[in-house]
Write a structure and sequence with these properties.
Blueprint lengths: L8 H54 L2 H4 L6 H4 E13 L2 E13 L10 H86 L1
Antiparallel strand pairs: 1-2
Helix pairs in contact: 1-4
C-alpha cells in the first residue's frame, strides 16, 4: 500500500471495500492452510509406509542376493517397466499425481534351464519397482503441497499482519482527518453566522 493516500471520502470508501475483501480472504487462506497440513500428514504417512516396504524388500533380497549374481542370469533383461499409469486430481488448489497401475515387460523364461529362485526374484523386483515408482510420485506430491502451504501461509500472514492492519490504520487516519475538517467547517459556519448576527445588530 502506498505511503501517501488521498484524504477524502472516495479513498475512505475504497479502503473500507478493500478491508472487507481482506477480511473475507483471511479465513479462506486459514482454512486452506489447515487442509494442506492434513494433506501433508497423509502423504507423509504413505511415504513412510513405502520407505519401510522398500527397506523390508531390500533386507529380504539380501538373503539370496549371492545366487542372483550368477553370470548366467541377467534379471535386468527379464523384467522392465513398460508403462506407469497415473491420474491427477486437485486437493486444496494443488494438482497431485496418484498411482493407478504399473505394467512390466517380461522376457521369456525357460524354467527348465533357469534356477528356481529367479521366479521369486522377479516378483520381488516388480514389488520393489512398484513401490519405488509410487514413492517418487508421493515425494513429488509432497514437494508441491509444501510449496502451496508456504504460499498460503505467506498470504495469511500478509493479510493478518500487513494488509488488514495498514488498511485499518489508514481508514482511521482519514476518518480523523475528515472529522477534523467537518468540525472546522462547522466552526467556521458558526463564526460566519455570528458575525452576520453582530453586523445586523449594529446596523
Amino acid at each position: 500500500m502506498a505511503d501517501k493516500i488521498l484524504m477524502n471520502k472516495n479513498t475512505l470508501a475504497a479502503l473500507k471495500n478493500e478491508l472487507k475483501g481482506y477480511r473475507t480472504a483471511l479465513p479462506v487462506f486459514e482454512m486452506k492452510e489447515q487442509q494442506l497440513k492434513e494433506v501433508i500428514q497423509t502423504i507423509e504417512a504413505v511415504v513412510e509406509r513405502l520407505q519401510k516396504a522398500i527397506e523390508t524388500t531390500n533386507t529380504d533380497v539380501k538373503q539370496w542376493a549371492a545366487v542372483m549374481t550368477e553370470p548366467t542370469i541377467d534379471l535386468g533383461q527379464l523384467v522392465a517397466v513398460k508403462e506407469l499409469k497415473t491420474k491427477t486430481r486437485e486437493i486444496a488448489g494443488v494438482i497431485i499425481e496418484k498411482f493407478v497401475s504399473i505394467d512390466f515387460d517380461e522376457g521369456d523364461i525357460d524354467y527348465f534351464e533357469t534356477p528356481l529362485w529367479v521366479d521369486a526374484a522377479l516378483g520381488s523386483i516388480k514389488d520393489q519397482t512398484t513401490n519405488q515408482e509410487m514413492l517418487k510420485l508421493e515425494l513429488k506430491n509432497l514437494e508441491s503441497v509444501r510449496e502451496e502451504l508456504a504460499e498460503a501461509r505467506r498470504m495469511k500472514n500478509a493479510l493478518k499482519e500487513v494488509f488488514i492492519p495498514e488498511t485499518q490504520n489508514n481508514i482511521r487516519k482519514i476518518e480523523i482527518y475528515l472529522g477534523d475538517v467537518e468540525r472546522l467547517a462547522i466552526g467556521c459556519a458558526k463564526l460566519v453566522k455570528k458575525k452576520k448576527q453582530v453586523k445586523s445588530e449594529v446596523v
